[in-house]
Every structure is written in C-alpha cells, then in structure tokens.
Amino acid sequence: MREMGPEDGIDKVRAGAEQDQPVLGHLTRSIVLVGMMGSGKTAVGTAVARFLGAPFLDSDHEIERAAQMTVAEIFARDGEPFFRARESEVLERLLSGPPGVISTGGGAFLSETNREMIARLGVSVWLKADLELLWNRVRHKNTRPLLRTADPKKTLTDLLAQRLPHYSKAQVVVEAEQGLSVPDMARKVIAHLRVVDGLIEEV
C-alpha cells in the first residue's frame, strides 16, 4: 500500500467546504501556525478551523485582550523581551486547552522553549511564503511594529533571512501561493495535516 500524500485529502476537504461543514472529523492535538507576518496565518487558520469544526485562537489577540493594549503599544511601552515572555505564557495556556487551530506571531517560533512546547503539545505548521508575496501583503499596513524603520522592505528581508532556519524546524511545511484563495489555501493545509499520523480522527 502506498503512503498517503497531501493530495489525497484535497477532494474530501473541497466537498465538505462547499457545505461549510466539518468533514474531516476532529483534531486530536492543536495545530500551531507559524511563519512570517503576512504569510496568512490568521486568515488561513480561521478557514482551517471552520473546515475542521475546531476553535480558532490567535496568540497576538489573546495577548492584546489580556493587556488591553495592541501589540504595537506593548512593544513601544514594554519592549520586545516583555512581549515575548507574555507570548510564551499565552501559548502554553492555549496549547493546554482543547485541540484547536492556533495562529502565532511571526517571532514566536524563534524561541526554542516555544518550539519544544509546541512539539510536545501540538503540531507546528509553517506557512512558507516568499519575500515578494510577504511584502505585497504588509507594505500598506502600519500595524507591524518591527517594520517601523527607514527601509521596511530591507527590514523584512533581513527578518526573513534570520527566521528561515527556525521556521524550517516546523513539523509540517505548506507553501503559500500567490493568487490562491484563502479557502483553497486552507484546503491545502488540511491535505498536509491528513498525512500526520493520528492528528485528525474521522467521524
């Protein structure tokens, strides 16, 4: 018997998505979306969660809710180290809850502590996007504190180069594609998740 590949899950996901109902059963562990700002973690994660009938949780939003401040405001007032500490606390809390789809900030997976925690309690999924795709998505937004520099594209380029070795340690890698709709990207992610043994239980 041949090994199952990501393409085996696509038709089944598409059939259920058209009814906007879960068709793949339920997650046995949380999946944690990692990757650069602009890779689509929030939008794609929301769609993946909907297709699987799972809760969607955004670690940045959880931090903002607890602090009653935006991420940019936390960076400005308390600095990045403070934010990263809160980020790790929130990730542990979310991973300790019921299985769901968790979107993380772009720097979360750089921490070895976070990577080990995610590997222990969930499955990491890297949404891999190239520089031009990322830049096209973030260049008109002013909500990215790390890009508030004199040359934001160079900053993004440098961040991507620094982070690639860490992102490459994710358990699942899914290539983002220019022009692919959010629902279709979610279907692509789910097809890859079906290859992970025991992650999705059929109903």
Automatic annotation (TrEMBL):
Keyword Cytoplasm: yes
Free-text cofactor note: Binds 1 Mg(2+) ion per subunit.
Enzyme Commission number(s) from the entry: 2.7.1.71
MF term (GO), any: shikimate kinase activity
Cellular component GO terms held in the UniProt record: cytosol
Positions of Mg(2+) binding: 42
Top enzyme category: transferase
Highest taxon listed in the record's lineage: Bacteria
PROSITE patterns reported in the protein's UniProt record: SHIKIMATE_KINASE
UniProt record, GO biological process: amino acid biosynthetic process; aromatic amino acid family biosynthetic process; chorismate biosynthetic process
Catalytic reaction list: shikimate + ATP = 3-phosphoshikimate + ADP + H(+)
Binding locations of ATP: 38-43, 144
Pathway(s) of this molecule: Metabolic intermediate biosynthesis; chorismate biosynthesis; chorismate from D-erythrose 4-phosphate and phosphoenolpyruvate: step 5/7
Main function: Catalyzes the specific phosphorylation of the 3-hydroxyl group of shikimic acid using ATP as a cosubstrate.
NCBIfam families referenced in this protein's UniProt entry, alphabetically: PRK13946.1
Protein name: Shikimate kinase
